[in-house]
Amino acid sequence: YFCHCESAEGRRGNLASEERIKVRGKKKMDKKKNYSSAASSTDTSIKGWQVGGQAVIEGVMMRSPKSVTVAVRKNDGQILVKKQPYIALSKRYKLLNLPIIRGAVVLIESLYLGIKALNFSAEEAMEEEKPAKKESERAKVAASARGAGGKENLEKGTKKKTLEAKKGKKEKIFTTLWLILSLLMGFSLALLIFFYLPLILTGLTGVKGGFLFNLIDGLIRITFFLIYVWLISLWKSMRRIFEYHGAEHKSIFTFEAGKDLTVENAKKYSTHHPGCGTSFLLIVMLVSILVFMFLGRPHTISDRLTRLLFVPLIAGISYELTKLSRKKRKNRIVKMLIVPGLWLQKITTKEPDEAQLEVAIAALKSALK
Fold first, then answer.
1. In this predicted structure, which of 14-28, 318-332, 334-348 has the lowest mean pLDDT?
2. pLDDT digits over 48-65, tens only?
3. 116-128 tens-digit pLDDT
4. Rounded to a whole number, what is the largest CA-CA distance in the chain?
5. How does strand 79-85 pair with strand 16-21?
6. How many other β-carbons are positioned within 10 Å of the β-carbon of residue 188?
7. CA dist list (Å): 177 to 118, 172, 184, 306, 364
8. Using CA atoms, how far apart are residues 340 and 177, in angstroms rounded to an integer?
9. What's the CA gap between 222 and 201, in Å, rounded?
10. Chain mean position to CA 20
11. What digits encode the pLDDT tens for the residues 218-253?
12. 3-class secondary structure for the chain?
C-alpha cells in the first residue's frame, strides 16, 4: 500500500503534521506542528544523542533516547507524525545495560518497535484507500438523524456509534495480539531459515571436522541472507521503502554532523551508514561463525537446538561491534571492517527525492524534541 506523493515544489511551505503523543497514565493529546524545509539549529544539548530508525510504508520511523516517532506522507501532501515517549529498557534497568546483554535486549526491542511502526504506516496507507467510503457512511447517519422519525433515527445513530467504539476497542486488542504474533513468527522464521536450515544442509555434506563444518555452515547462512536481500530488492514496491531508507540515513548523517536539519543539507550525505541494521545483520552472520566454532560439530537435534541459545550472545557481540564501528568509523581498520556492510547497503538503500527527505527530517525533528 503506497500513498501518492506530490512534487516537492507543490508542497513547500504547506507541510503540516499531526503529532499524536501517548503518555502512560495520562490522556491522549493531539498537537499540530508545521515542518518546513526552513533551517533549524541543532540544539547543543542533544548533539551527543545516538539516534536510529528504519523505513516504513511511505515514511520513516526515528528513535531517540526519549521517544519513538513515525512520519508518513499522506495523499494530500501532508506529513502525519505519530510520536510516543519511550525510554529503552537498557536505560531503565542497569542490568540490561551491561555489555553484550544490552545487544540482545536492543535486538528484541527494535523488532517490536519496528513491526509496530510498520503496522501504523500500513494502517494509514489503508485509511487513504477508503476516505470516500467513510464520508458516505457519515452522510447516511446524518441524513437518517434528520429524516422522518428524527428522535428514533438519532437513537439508532447513537447506538451505531457506541457499537463502532466497542468495535474499535476490539480491533486495538486484535492489533496488539497480531503484533506479538508477528514478532514471534518473524523471529522463529528467521531462526529456522538462517540458523537451523544451514545446519541441516551442512550435515548433508558429510564434513566431520568442527572447524570446516562451522565454516561451511556460516557460508551457507551468509548466502541465504544475501539471496534474501537480493530477492526483496526485485520487488518493485520495495524500491520506495529503500528510498525512504536512504532518506533516513541522510537525515541522521546531517544530525550527527551538527548541521541544520534541512533538505539541502541532507542531500550532501551518503545513503550508506555504518550503524545500519543491514550492516548489523551481516556482522551477526560473521560473528555466528566464530561463536559456533567453539561448539564443534553438532551430532544430534539437541546439539543443533542448543546453538539457538547462543543467538542472544551473538546479537550482543554484534551490537557492541556495530556500536564501536559507529564511534570509530574514521579509524582505518574500522573503515576496512565496515566496507562489506556498506556495499550491501547499495542494495537496501536508494537515493531519495526531496519529498522523502522532508518526511525523514520531520520524523527526526519530532524525535529530538
1. 14-28
2. 788 889 999 899 999 999
3. 888 888 888 777 6
4. 86
5. parallel
6. 11
7. 15, 9, 11, 29, 29
8. 37
9. 13
10. 18
11. 999 999 988 988 888 888 878 889 999 999 999 999
12. CCCCCCCHHHHCCCCEEEEEECCCCCCCEEEEEECCCCCCCCCHHHCCCCCEEEEECCEEEEECCCEEEEEEECCCCCEEEEEEECCCHHHHCHHHHCCCHHHHHHHHHHHHHHHHHHHHHHHHHHHHHCHHHHHHHHHHHHHHHHCCCHHHHHHHHHHHHHHHHHHHHHHHHHHHHHHHHHHHHHHHHHHHHHHHHHHHHHHCCCCCCHHHHHHHHHHHHHHHHHHHHHHHHHCCCHHHHHHHHHHHHHHHHHHHCCCCCCHHHHHCCCCCCCCCHHHHHHHHHHHHHHHHHCCCCCCCHHHHHHHHCCHHHHHHHHHHHHHHHHHCCCCHHHHHHHHHHHHHHHHHCCCCCHHHHHHHHHHHHHHHC
Instruction: Determine contact, residues 59/70, Cβ cutoff 8 Å.
Output: yes
Q: Per the structure block, which three cell numbers stand in for 145?
A: 438523524
Whole-angstrom Cα distance, residue 243 to residue 9?
Answer: 19
Distance of CA 45 to the CA centre of its chain: 26
Assigned C-alpha cell, 139:
452522510
Q: Which three cell numbers stand for residue 7?
A: 512534487
For residue 332, pLDDT beyond 50: yes
